[in-house]
Amino acid sequence: MMQKDPFNQQLFEFLADAPTPFHAVYEMRGWLQQAGYIELEEQNAWSVHPGGRYFIVRNESSIIAWNMPANSDLIDSGMRMVGAHTDSPCLKVKPNPETVRQGCLRLGVEVYGGALLNPWFDRDLSLAGRVSYVGTEGNVKSELVDFSRPIAIIPSLAIHLDREANKDRTVNPQNDLPPILAQLHGDGKAELRQLLKKELAAIDIDDVDEVLDYELFFYDVQKPSYIGLDNEFFASARLDNLLSCFIGLQALLDSDTDQGALLVCNDHEEVGSMSAAGAQGPMLKQLLERLLPDSESRNRMIANSMMVSVDNAHAVHPNFTDKHDGNHGPRMNSGAVIKINANQRYASNSETSALFRHIAQQEGVTLQSFVVRSDMACGSTIGPITAAEIGVKTIDIGVPQLAMHSIRELAGSDDPVNLAKVLSRFYQQASV
Questions:
Q1: Record's Gene Ontology CC terms (predicted)?
Q2: What does DSSP say about strands 306-310 and 393-398: parallel, antiparallel, or unpaired?
């Protein structure tokens, strides 16, 4: 039985331990292994059995976990699928990032995804990601690193030097965003690859001959925490969309279902999903082809399946209520949101919405609806992409939140566990 406070405490720990998609998948892999799931390697032949529980990882940043049906045929039972994404908007370090200006070491960054940039100033930043190196025996390896401590900052320009800052401030990503890491003295130099080699040694990786490459991301070291007089809210980095990854994972582990059940968490959603590990890539399709090589059988299975795409929704902001349609302003702590768009930016339709509403009613959980204002552009999710790639009926839902794509986002503290309960029941549905 999932309870709010223990659920949220585990969520906070997951968010803090997952500063990058690589770390998120590492943490999810640990949860699955502890629950008895078997990791399969994509380059090897597979042997899966009824009732078996398995998972695969691609690029160390995308993961699919699934249960084989125990007492029925996969074709007839279909798959109950939940999808989310592991990446979040952030600042990614460039390949040759070091610059020294006025004695300060800075690292050049690219903006990954549609980040809100102003909140990145004056934050205690650390650095994490994946490092590839050649070992002392001449073989190429990769390792995850996380400096964990504050090592960088992007200071704001003082108001005295920019009197219009509070009126009309824009951010130039090339000039304004390079974080400061150190103050160098004399002819002192600091190279990122040498810093990474030291960091690898600090975590007992002592066979590094040369750091060859890396994928590194800055992040705010502030931990997740409750907010509000009665802990009504909680704030954290990367709620979009690690919150959905955690909810989907806990629902799968809690469901104890004999149905075919699957969780897919793809990387690269924030930049369009077009990659080998993204939702617009072949990862999920290839998995289903391996489970059912015969196309007739596979198409029948997909027709008996359903996907719930879980990606956070825009809660109505009390200071900006005019940004929402008057009848579609979801509130935090009032239930997950069914996202609807006439132009198929979301994949929900009346049938999938009705089924999901019925499941939520069985759990005593309320739901809300979101439609973007008719005079505003609408975002999208992995829902329409997955529906188009494999032809599965799909619904788009999500926890309502504020400050989406900020370095620190806000959500209601009741919503995560309630959505997890609904998804757990969805995983156990005999038919969809």
A1: cytoplasm
A2: parallel
